[in-house]
Design brief:
The protein has about 110 residues and is of the alpha+beta class. The protein has helices spanning about 5-15, 20-40, 85-95, and strands spanning about 45, 50-60, 60-65, 70-75, 75-85. It contains 3 helices and 5 strands; from the N terminus they run H-H-E-E-E-E-E-H. Strands 1-2-5 form a 3-stranded antiparallel β-sheet. About 0% of the residues are buried.
């Protein structure tokens, strides 16, 4: 699977919008900062059709170290969660090859 990094995304958006890469980079950086800040405040960020970002509380817990058998406790904390929207899901599904069945030969 090929990755798309931030720099490539900036280049593509700049090309499509005919804006400078610097402006696109500033907008993207600020958008990501605003999403991060909203999540840190416990807010949910929804981008209609694309998806929703939210911070969920993970409860504290205990695990055993495999070798030493010592019990390790970890604290509760907030984790960022992303849920894809319907338009994004449809766009991703269209790009993946779909296995189709061969039609059965019907006798006439």
């Amino acid at each position: 699977m090929k990755h798309m990094y931030k720099e490539e995304l900036i280049r593509k958006v700049a090309r499509e919008t005919r804006l400078s890469q610097r402006i696109v980079a500033d907008v993207l950086t600020d958008m990501l900062h605003q999403i991060s800040a909203a999540l840190a405040e416990g807010k949910k960020v929804s981008l209609l059709g694309f998806g929703a970002f939210e911070a969920r509380q993970r409860r504290a817990g205990k695990v055993k170290h495999i070798k030493t058998r010592h019990v390790i406790t970890y604290p509760a904390r907030l984790l960022p969660i992303f849920r894809a929207g319907e338009l994004l899901k449809r766009a991703v599904r269209k790009t993946k090859p779909v296995k189709s069945r061969k039609p059965k030969n019907k006798k006439k």
